[in-house]
Amino acid sequence: MKISQRLKLIESMVINRYDHIWDCCCDHGLLGAKLLDNHRALVVHFVDVVPDLMRSVGEKLERYYPLAQGEQPRWQVHCLDAALLPLASKDKSQLIIIAGVGGELLISLVNAILAAHPQHKLEFILCPVQHTFEVRKALSQLNLGLIDENLLEENSRFYEVLHVSTFSQQQVSLVGNKMWDLTRSLDQRYLQKTLSHYQRIEAGLQCKPINSQSDVSAKDVSRIIKSYQALTTLRNKF
Asked: What are phi and psi of 196, to 5 degrees?
């Protein structure tokens, strides 16, 4: 089964075997199917809010992953909002994967899941399509700790993939930590693109009247820029 580089990276970050894996916003179910192939969970849950899409995913699963009579189900399909996941009991190991959505939506989903299950020990693998700094800030405020993080480029777009949990003691860095290798062209180009993005925002804010309303101040953006600029000192370590 051919899957994208982004999904391959996410799949490679699922090292442990879980009781339940929730593949949210699962699109065509390719990632969940790969996790089924590699036996990464007792049950893989396919979750999306689009009825026609989930009907198609269910039909494919019935065709390629049929259940023998009396066998415990290895997969389940859920057509619902990922904020409303019917998680298993808190004694079960559970990984929730959310990818392919914007940062604002991703934050709201994680927030809702944690609020609904405050006693659960949960892991998340998250891959927002934008607003990664804001996602990292929100994860830190939610007291989620880092397990792993990776960076990749696919189809001229950059993606950060974060593996976090409710029990890890490692702080989530606002600009990333262990994912960076600034000896690579990939990392250098991503850092420059990110800096240029925030520098354009800063320039636009500086041009606004002092009494204009804005969700973010020039001072806030300046702090973000300095945080990313500090990463360039990593080059001197190699």
From this structure: -60, -40
Please name the residues in contact with 178: beta carbons below 8 A apart, sequence gap of 6 or more: 146, 148, 149
Mean pLDDT of 89-112: 97
**Angle, vertex CA 99, rays to CA 135 and CA 136, nearest 5:** 15
Is it the case that residue 12 has pLDDT exceeding 70?
yes
Measuring CA to CA, how many Å separate 223 from each of 83, 198, 216, 230?
Answer: 32, 10, 11, 11
Q: What average pLDDT does the segment 109-127 reach? A: 98
Is pTM beyond 0.85? Reply is: yes
Number of Cβ within a 10 Å radius of residue 27 = 16
Token pair, residue 129, equals 């399509």
- Cβ neighbour number for residue 208 with a 10 Å cutoff: 11
What would the two tokens of residue 236 be?
A: 């001197």
Among the listed residues 151, 144, 146, the one whose alpha carbon sits nearest the alpha carbon of residue 128: 151
